[in-house]
Amino acid sequence: MGSRILTSKKQAAELGRIRTGYSRPNPKNPKGRPIPVRSATFLLSSHSEQYIARAAELYGGAVEQWTPQGQSVAQWRVITEARELRAILPAGDPLSQSYELWSGGGCSRRCDGVTEQLSRRPCLCRAEYGEDWHLQNEVEQGSVCKTTSRIGVMLPDMPDLGVWRLETHSHYAADVMAGGVDTVLQATEGKSMMPVRMWIEQRNVMRPGGPKHFPVVMLVPSIPALRHALSGPLSTAAALDPSTLNRPALEAGSAERPDYLADARECTTPADVIKVWHRARAAGHGSEGLLADLKQIAEDVEAGVDPRTGVVDDDQGDDEPGPDADGVYDVEVLAEGDPEPPTAYPAAAWPEAAQPGGGAR
């Protein structure tokens, strides 16, 4: 039997990245820093040419070889024509957020907004620039941390099992993305996958020097109706095809619903009738009406009445003594307080939840 390292992180393989922008050479200074470009459509990149070729088939665009800024290993990318992506959030919490400051030596700060995790000191950016410290990046980039959100999603029509990581540094997108993911987690308790839609939405906010434009990646559950996203964990089939959630339950399952009353009428003991009730409840078909009908059938069976016909069992009359010559039956008289004689079938005990008012559904 296999064993695991209890303190290790369990995560799916990262197949590639989903990006919302790219960079182009600076025409005024070809050797200088490239100019960042915001994209109206999603961009996918990966070390695998096969993945990017498939993405180009699905979402449009041309496959090209590309080397990320500051790296030496070439990758593949496609600037797609897709303004929206359909994806699946895996079970658990797929979102990671922090304030980060990177330099040539790697990540020098990683903060949760209260404590800088590497030095274990209070938020350094807030201490230096105040509550609106994040605006400092609009004045001088690289002087304060950037809001960093990373989320892993599965693209159901792409090859292989793994996640595609979307990373954004938008301070305003962080709240929107966290709100969408938290809605999903509240509904599924992190126990199932959830289909989602993602798109790039352009926003603006007023600043003292004029309006500030920025993109926000919107992420919302992709389901036919809101109640589906709030009704608990979804099956894998529903996550892959949300349209199945819109099919009426009776239309989808009425043909398979057993005839519990017919099954109960074939029973020969009350205990067998109770088993029919347990089976109905386990299948989600229990109801007060069915419970009452099954109890009546159990009483008929115990009394020797054939529940299929309503006729008293013929065998029961054969051994009964008839009246004497005076028309009197020979019966045993019990004194008050004497115990009842045993019955052929002792009274069956219905489960507590099946008692009237016991909450049976």
List the helices and strands and how they pair.
Blueprint: E1 14-24, E2 35-46, H1 49-59, E3 63-66, E4 75-79, E5 84-89, E6 95-103, E7 106-111, E8 115-116, E9 121-122, H2 124-129, H3 136-139, E10 146-153, E11 163-168, H4 171-188, E12 194-207, E13 210-221, H5 226-229, H6 236-240, H7 249-253, H8 260-265, H9 270-282, H10 288-302, H11 315-318
Parallel strand pairs: 1-11
Antiparallel strand pairs: 1-2, 2-4, 3-4, 5-12, 6-7, 6-10, 8-9, 10-11, 12-13
Helix pairs in contact: 9-10
Account of the protein in words:
The protein has 361 residues and is α+β, with helices and mostly antiparallel strands. It is built from 11 helices and 13 strands. Strand 6 (95-103) and strand 7 (106-111) form a beta hairpin. The two termini are 41 Å apart.
Short description:
With 361 residues, the chain is an alpha+beta fold. It has helices at 49-59, 124-129, 136-139, 171-188, 226-229, 236-240, 249-253, 260-265, 270-282, 288-302, 315-318, and strands spanning 14-24, 35-46, 63-66, 75-79, 84-89, 95-103, 106-111, 115-116, 121-122, 146-153, 163-168, 194-207, 210-221. The radius of gyration is 34 Å and the shape is elongated.
Strand content: 25-35%
What oligomerization state is this entry in?
A: single chain
Structural class: alpha+beta
Could you tell me the mean pLDDT?
79
Largest sheet: 8 strands, mixed
For the secondary structure, the number of strands is 13
Number of helices: 11
End-to-end separation in angstroms reads: 41 Å
Order of helices and strands: EEHEEEEEEEHHEEHEEHHHHHHH
Overall morphology: elongated
Strand order of the largest sheet: 3-4-2-1-11-10-6-7
Query: Helicity level, as a percent range?
Result: 25-40%
Radius of gyration: 34 Å
Low-confidence stretches: 249-255, 340-345
